[in-house]
Amino acid sequence: MADAPENALTGFRAEIDAIDAEIVALLARRMAVVDRVIVAKRSHGLPALIPARVEEVAGQVRRHAGELGAPPDLAEAVWRTMMDWVIAYEDERLSPR
């Protein structure tokens, strides 16, 4: 009796799961920096949203993705979603209580 066709994906799934764990670890590291950014923005009276920086990051991500062979559109979409979430997170923490 042959293995189920889906078993052919087991190794790939394990590899993707390991990569996902690395991405989550990097996300946690990035958010630790974001928390320090909030402190700096608060002390200097800066807003959560700095549009020029958003566009700078999006451009860097597109270029880096292209250099590495990843789809730039996908990378930019993921980063813009993440940046929108982070800006809302910062805004909430920068708002007077």
TrEMBL record:
InterPro entries reported in the protein's UniProt record: Chorismate_II_sf (IPR036263), Chorismate_mutase-related (IPR051331), CM_dom_sf (IPR036979), CM_II_prokaryot (IPR002701)
Pfam families registered for this protein in UniProt: CM_2
Keyword terms: Isomerase, Lyase, Pyruvate
Superkingdom of the organism of origin: Bacteria
Residue span(s) of domain Chorismate mutase: 3-94
GO molecular function, one term: isochorismate pyruvate lyase activity
Enzyme class label: isomerase
Keyword Transmembrane: no
EC nos: 5.4.99.5
Protein name, UniProt field: chorismate mutase
